[in-house]
Amino acid sequence: MKHVAVLMGGWSAEREVSMDSGLACSEALKSCGYQVTPIDVGRNIAEVLTELKPDVCFNALHGRYGEDGFIQGMLEVMGIPYTHSGVLASAVAMDKPVAKHLFIDAGLRCADGRIFTRQEIQAGETYPKPFVVKPLNEGSSVGVTIMLEGENMPLAELPWTFGERVLIETYIPGREIQVAVMGDEALGAVEIRPLGRFYDYEAKYTSGKAEHLMPAPLSEEDYTAVLEMALTAHKVLGCRGVSRSDFRFDDTGEGPGVFYILETNTQPGMTSLSLVPEIAAHCGIGFEDLVRWIVEDASCDR
Question: Could you read off the pLDDT of 279-294 as tens digits, one per residue?
Fold first, then answer.
């Protein structure tokens, strides 16, 4: 019987949703017949894993230190196979400006933007509205702020606790489209219609805060195109296992709609409200089959 250590929790801003993902995956893996040890990850995780000696780690951590290459590097050194993407793909995908350069080089359209330092913002630097303020390396919309036309709060007055640099991009109007990739196949696309201002942390993890349309109501041509874009993003980053790419589809003008890639998530959520399980279910892949596939796909980069 394969022994799976499910890594969850941690100390990032996404700790709570990581716990939900980890517990859901632990129960599913037990139902599949695996020996499962859930671990709320602390800074002594190497010591814990050395004593436990699992056959594989299911990485259900989200955010910094779990999704950005740090825990992956430790598992590489320890020689423990782990789920989802490896060190480099995880680090690059989590660094929004670096990932953006790779996307553009691969022919994917991204929103215009630039990096500001805290000093530049405090000195009165501005960016034309509407725009979106993002941390460089957080997930789940943590720290994201949208500033639309007619809103006058100066950049310097925005609350900010995410380091000395910030990414500011032109706001793309239109629809929120998200695509799941599993291995070498794009499974499908879902449209998200948040009830609030945008698809923020609360809308992602609170029932009733967003409407999910699966499959996304796009033309056949557009649906196929966005699946191909997500697979391109998965491959150009060097992802393995499951990923989810987020797009804006700007169909507000008179011409055909245009897709902009926002980011690729190398460890998408696995909660009851998460999109990858929802998309997989639409394709006939149940939650237990999904987590079993993810575990059996686990490996090290080396």
Answer: 999 999 999 999 999 9
